[in-house]
Fold:
Amino acid sequence: MQKLKSIFRQNFPGARRRDVLIWLFIVLGSSFVGLVMTYLSFRQGIDFGDGSTFFSFAHNLANGEVIYKDFIHFRTPGSYFLQSFFIRIFGDQQASVRFALGFEARVLYIFFFATALAIFLRFKYVLLGVLSLLIVIALPPYAQLRTVLALVAVVLYIQSYRGVAQHRSIWLVCSGVFIGLAFTFGQEAALMAIVAIGLMELFQIKKNTIKLALRRIGVLMLGTLLGVLPLLLYVITQSDVPTFLYYTFYYAFILQPQAMDLVYPPISYVNAMFYIVFVLYLIIFYIFYSSRKIGIVEGALLVFGIMRLVTLLGRSDAGHLLFVLPELIFLTLYAIIHVKNAQFTKQGFKRFALYGAALSISFWAAMSSSGIILIVSAFIIYLALYSKRSSMQEVTVMKDANAIVLTVITSFFSILIYILYPSFSSTLDTMSTRGLTDLEIGGLNVTPAVYTEVNMINDAVKPLHPTTIFSYPIQPYYYNLAPKHATRFMTFELETTEKEQEQAIDDLKRTRPEVILYDPVQATSLDKPLGKINAYIKSHYKIKQVVVYSRTYWIMVPN
Structure:
């Protein structure tokens, strides 16, 4: 214990016992608040999209199936195993998965986010940490564990430069472990951390010898291997390695974005929020560049926040906008308190202007084409922070520059909060009904319309007593109407390949589902990527009953 205290004091100089206890209270207190909010809100409404898909995955895992062999998905499975654990504890119903999703977003995420803030702020700036956490807690529970694990990895990597030399390997191993964990919960988040860390290491080579740089990378890779080892052992011993590699790398990073990425919203008042994010990052970059106390090491967090925008650029909707806000919220507040440490001179602004323009162009290019261009943005930021010259001797200070920059940032942050107010209000509304109502399905309270539709489909399927069902093409909720699913594919998307169609048809021939719940509108809209499956179903199955409510469903049985 004494040794741990010694290591802490050496790596966090100036942090007193009281500071540590306060931050411990903040970390545990904010996590508890998140737990209470999850308990009060998790029963509200069935999610027929992603939530039902996650429930199907967790249900399969809880029943002994193996991902990438018995069923397929393009993301690494950490969250699905967590959800299956909740199913085993609280029962095989969607309420268990909804609670698991809330627990991940509001308890685990908040715990690791608060821990990352404590380490990055070196157990100081308590008010900054509390304000950042309060705003993040109030957001809808869209945050996912994979992103905050990657954030912790970046913060621990930063600490490897801030801490004393003899303990750097400890921080690097820990950083690598969190990269491995981030990969287990979502491979794209780990890639974002790797880009932020890898580029920074590249810019540090001149300060470090190549031998030292290679040693650091080796230690980091060792930690990453330790973090990802449970997943690797699972895939090697239980699952299918080629399928795992195909879906988590080629499919996830090449095929899936081609069909799923949306066009970035055009500039307008309605879409202002989508552009304020980039403006804020540009201003934060200027403050970092102008600050005497911020350099390339602290810039790694800015780079990671910008790499997180890949998610926003890909899906370009309100949900994914909220998804990237936690890092931006903290970095905005962090930049505000560092305005006092910045020197905004005319000479400094002229030097920054080139980098600022380059960053703006890279942002615009990423909006117009692909989020992968953000790697260029990361390179620009590191280059600027690496090459910036001290303006201590420059006396031509821009008049009232501090007040101007502070006003701009606080104004934008006020707009941010104003636009997000409906989301905060929605969070409070979902906490208003705590128990189950008469309109309950799977442990969740639903609207009269949903209750009626689900029961109409239940009444149509139940007399057929299916043991295997095919809920097609994107109706994952109704897989709970039978013990088994018909194919390894739980949903079918725009990027479905011809080979996957053939595999699905082979599965249908093998499993011979007694019932196919067919959504004709979805199937018709996806006829181009799913034409072979559509044709197979229509030639081998007949319509037993048509259920029409808010949507139309065909209840189909074998010819």
Remarks:
- The CA atoms of residues 273 and 306 lie 16 Å apart.
- The beta strands are 440-441, 444-445, 468-472, 484-485, 515-518, 541-548, 552-558.
- The longest helix spans residues 401-429.
- The two ends are 72 Å apart (CA to CA).
